[in-house]
Amino acid sequence: MNKSLGRQLKKYRIFYLMFLPVAVYFIIFTYYPFLRGLIMSFQENRLLGNRPFAGLANYRFVLKDSNFLAAVANSLIIGLWDMVLYFFFSLGFALILNELVHRTVKQTIQTIAYIPYLFSWAVIGGVWVLIFDLQGLVNQFLSIFGTEPIFFLATPDYARPLIIAMGVWRSMGYFALLFTVAIMNIEGQLYEAARIDGASRFMQIRKIILPSLIPTMKTIIVLLSIGVLTHFDEIYVMVNPANRRLISTLLLFVYETGILNFQTGTASAGATLVMAGTLLITGLMRKFIGYDKE
Amino acid sequence: MKRTRVLVMLVVLLAISLTLFAQGQVDKAAVEVKVLAGVTGGKDDAENKLFEEAMEKGTGLNITWEKVPSGYDQVLMQKLGAGEQYDLIYLNQFQMYTLGKQGALMDLTDRIAASKVYAENVDKTELEKIQFNGKYYAGFNKLEVFPLVNVNKAITDKVGIDLSKLSTLDDYYQMLKKVKTHMEQTEGRKPYYPFFTYMPDIWDLQPWFSSVGLRRGVFIDANGKKFAPYVDPKAKVVWEWLAKLYREGLMDPTSFTGKTGDMRSKMWQSQDIVMDVDWAAWTGLYNNNARTAGTYPAKVNVVGLPGTKGPSGKYMLEQGGASLWAIPANAKNPDEAFKIIEHMATKEGALLLSAGIEGHDYNLKNGKIEYTEAGRAHAKDHGAPFPISKLFDLSVLGEMNPGVLESVSIGKRADVEVAPMGYANGELDARKYYDIMSKWMTECVMGKTTAEAAMKGAENELRTNKLID
Amino acid sequence: MKSRLSKKDNLPLGLSALNILLLVLVVVLMGLPMLNVLAVSLSTQAKSDAPGLVLLPTPPTFEGYTFIWKHTNLPRPFFNTVYVSVVGTVLHVLMASLAGYILCQNKLPFRKAMTTFILLTMTVPYELTMIGIYAVNRDLGLTNTYAGLIINGMVSGFSVFLMRNYFQAIPLSLAESARIDGSGEWRIFSSIYLRLSVSGLMTIGTLELIRRWNNITMTITLISDMKKWTLPVVLRFILFDQTSTSGTSYIFANAKMAAVVMTALPLVVLYFFTQSFFSSGIMIGSVKE
Fold first, then answer.
1. What's the CA gap between B22 and B75, in Å, rounded?
2. Domain total in chain C
3. Are B343 and B336 in contact (CB under 8 A)?
4. Bigger pLDDT: B169 or A108?
5. Cα of A157 to nearest chain C Cα, Å
6. Chain A 224-263, CB below 8 Å of chain B: which residues?
7. pLDDT, tens digit, for every residue of C214-252?
């Protein structure tokens, strides 16, 4: 057994050599800073000079904070909804886009769908506020049907749906691109064969395109699950006193309680907990969809 | 054999380079004063270099003026956290408390007490505002102004209101009501919401709470107990007054969701509001912007008002949190750093931090300042539009924006008190305080709960979060 | 050989119509904010700052653009951004595809551990590393250098996993037969895997380029020398820092939005044209005979 592993390692040594630069990069630029952060989470809140160790005090402080617990719930609700919707909307969009024959039209539509991703959240937040304002476009549209203006931005019932919709709206084109590329890569012969069998276009989508996309779907699900707990920017630009309770997420908590106040220990402990949660979610997803099986 | 030789050579090389490196470090450190600055300094790299030279000339020191024009707070945290050494750093009052508590700042109490420059130039009352546990951990960057009530007189004149007579909550209520009626019925602008107040930070409510003599923030009473005046039973009338304004369509709903920028453009640009609470400097900026647009003073003529009179007969406003200079505990050249702090409090320093650099931003002609194109673009602000030195005469800077001097001088009136924010001696997590207060105030103003219930809710939440006792 | 669907079957009419309807909806929803940004940037100073949503500039003017052009020295940050983004992206694509290639070697011992090693890096929040990252860059002398901006983000888990995904679509038999023919791994990697994954490379390249183009956090962390600033940092400076609370200069919305458009426009054009690569890049099926 040992011998065969040794032989295997030797056989594959070129791969390990090739992996070296990547590993070195991650060790220096991710793992080392991470380690420093992790250590800081067990130390007193001190920006400058030596930081005495404080045991689990920072974790206790964070876990006792009622705002943190509320943020866990908000993060999970917003994050999971976003994950599911990002996935289905972008897949659906890639599929219907693929049915267009005219190439320039297709390219134009795809570009437009991607554009929201090019703008910063600050710009997008500004536009959304205008659109969902009391006298905004949405209310003007609703007034055609005689609806009283709705104060979307300050009505708690709309707080989370609005944030989730914003995320979907911005990221749909991004993930759709990944699907589109995968669809393009499907071998032409497969369609050819199906056509000979007399399969309709609809059947082709079901029997050829969707199964071929499974590896891409798995990859995207894993990537999305990593993002579940890390929503920050869209919250930051949209938060107001009326919706804060419902949309304040974990990273917003870390930012406001820790970073803005120079509380290095609190910030690190909070961020470490976010990471632990992310690992849990990603690990579960990885198992659930059988990502590592080939 | 061969290996050993290589090893020896390597060690020798390393030793040599280390010595060289260390020497270089020492030589440089002896003379170089390292400053980390946020807004204060030149507007771009070239000008920042000139600013650095001007500062060197003024202090006789060798200075590196590192300016972080964007994302300063983040960078400050990263640099200090990573153990970077600076002799002088720019920070706000809040950060001063936090870092002071963490022991990251040098105690400047003795230096400030002994400073002739500070004794001559800095007002005692200003100095008291930045005290922390009886000590000083920083010197001034500039004189802070304060938010006050800004009213567009061009509109209120049409309705025939004497602004100088407004001094109670009801006076303001009646004024807003008259304006609303006029705008909606005579000018056909429906709906018209005459008042905007930025709710997320509740930072501009002080002129109204002044009517019951209460201040924003958290304070410590004689028994060492922390308390928040805005949830005092006496404050109820103000909460109710705000709710009434909203209920009757006098307060712009965008107050809850908009940004300060929205408020400002509604004020001078579209005249969608007639009143807000904004910095004294903005009285001038409103008018100046309107002048550029050709609407001053016929359509836009903003004037500053002190708000409402309290039980003691005084108007109470709140000063902005100070912007300060502190010396980190690990600084190598604290003496030199303090010299820079002192220089910024002198008349010469004041001129540099406002008008800018002579020969670049302005030229002196017969002792009078003549601005260059660059100087005009920088609008008399290189970190301190209102310098801290009381010996500095603002009028040497030339013409100011219309209305701004009147607004600033309101703070000097005998019946006006400009109080510092209640940070409870640095014990207050202000972000949390804002969040809790603005949340409950929003509930109350939007009419979802009574003022009583909202105040109770706010009080409870402040207590569970240990912001008050 | 060119068996790519030259003639595609069509959906039944009803579905087709529904399809087009949905696409129109997407275009309207996605295009609206863009239209707003564009319209504001082309408005006059006064109109651009008026409250409410603007969708058509009346009358259109380039005031905002000329203001920004005069007010800020844009060519310099523009070239900084191009340089840092392009060089960084090329490096990134190389590294990511290398790692992706390694991770798709089925029988490689410790493959799962290596996968986890990379996956883990994606779960670390920036808030946890921000001080450490600055310290590392300072110790390596990378602050205030272009090299710093290029090296940070030289590879990312995100791109590695996407590349691995694209590589997995390539039949292992291709590599096996090349190995039997005596090709080295570098050769197999470069002449089979890279050649057959042009669309995948273009994808992660485009995404990375856009990420780098818009990256603010890293630039702010590393660069305090304004000469080395990139476009989005200048943009942020114009949008936020210059109009802070006690600020004295006022920048109108048309100029702000003009800056937004000028920053995003190169990317929009680039994105539009790279898409023809996505669809016409060398296809796996076309080489496999």
1. 26
2. 2
3. no
4. B169
5. 22
6. 239-242, 244-245, 256-257, 259-263
7. 898 899 999 988 888 898 888 877 766 555 444 445 677
pLDDT tens by residue, C143-198: 999 999 999 999 999 999 999 988 988 888 888 888 888 888 888 998 889 988 88
Q: Give the chain B residue whose CA is nearest to the CA of A61.
A: B465
Residue A96 near chain C (CB below 8 Å): yes
Whether residues C100 and C46 share a domain: the answer is no
Kindly give the interhelix angle for C198-214 and A156-184, rounded to the nearest 10 degrees. 140
Shared-domain flag, residues C115 and C196 = yes
Bridge partners (DSSP) listed for residue C243: none
CB–CB contacts below 8 A, A to C: 271
User: Residue C43 belongs to what domain range?
Assistant: 13-69
Nearest to B438 among A67, A129, A241 (CB): A241
- Which of C26, C49, C122, C159 would best serve as a mutation to test chain A binding (most A beta carbons within 10 A)? C26
CB contact under 8 A, C11 and A201: yes
Residues of chain C contacting B254 with CB distance shorter than 8 Å? 51
Flag whether residue A47 sits within 8 Å of chain B, measured between CB atoms: yes
Instruction: Name chain C contacts of B84, Cβ cutoff 8 Å.
Output: 138
Asked whether residue C7 is domain-assigned, the answer is no
Interface contact flag, A260 B73, Cβ < 8 Å? yes
CB B333 within 8 A of CB B33: yes
Instruction: Select the residue from C68, C73, C242, C246 to test the B interface by mutation, using most B Cβ atoms within 10 A.
Output: C246
Residue B417 structure tokens: 């008190």
Say if residue C126 is in the same domain as residue C234.
yes
Domain that holds residue B243: 147-318+414-464
| Tally of domains within chain B | 2
Q: So what's the pLDDT on residue C281?
A: 44
What's the pLDDT score for residue C8?
60
Identify the CA nearest to A69 among candidates A253, A282, A264, A281: A253
Nearest to C246 among B45, B145, B254 (CB): B145
What CATH number is given to the structural domain containing B418? 3.40.190.10
Angle, nearest 10°, between helix axes A214-227 and C157-168? 170
To the nearest whole Å, the CA of A227 is away from the closest chain B CA by: 23
Among partner residues C10, C22, C132, which is closest to A33 by beta-carbon distance?
C132
Q: What is the tens place of the pLDDT at every residue in B416-434? A: 999 887 877 677 778 888 8
Give dist(CA A223, CA B260) in Å, integer. 37
**Do the Cβ atoms of A257 and B442 come within 8 Å?**
no
Give yes or no: residues C48 and C116 share one domain: no
User: What are the strands of the beta sheet with B32-37, ordered from one edge?
Assistant: B62-67, B32-37, B88-92, B323-326, B139-140
- Nearest one of B97, B116, B113 to B421, comparing CA atoms: B97
| φ and ψ at residue A36, rounded to 5 degrees | -60, -40
Among C216, C239, C262, the domain-final residue is C239
Mean pLDDT of all residues in C6-29: 77
Write down the pLDDT at residue B10. Answer: 52
Residues C234, C114: one domain?
yes
Is the pLDDT at B24 greater than 50? The verdict is no
Average pLDDT over residues C119-148: 94
User: By CA distance, what is C232's nearest residue in B?
Assistant: B70
- Give chain B's mean pLDDT: 89
pLDDT of residue A71: 95
Rounded Cα distance between C48 and C35, Å, is: 13
C145 lies in the same domain as C214: yes
Q: Quote the percentage of chain B above a pLDDT of 90.
A: 61
Higher pLDDT, A48 or A291: A48
Q: Which alpha helices (H) appear in B274-403, and where do they start and end?
A: 280-293, 334-344, 347-354, 373-377
Top CATH class of A67-288 equals mainly alpha
Do B267 and B167 share a domain, yes or no? yes
Percentage of chain A modeled with pLDDT above 70? 98
The ipTM estimated for the assembled molecules is: 0.88
Q: The CATH number of the domain where C125 resides is what?
A: 1.10.3720.10
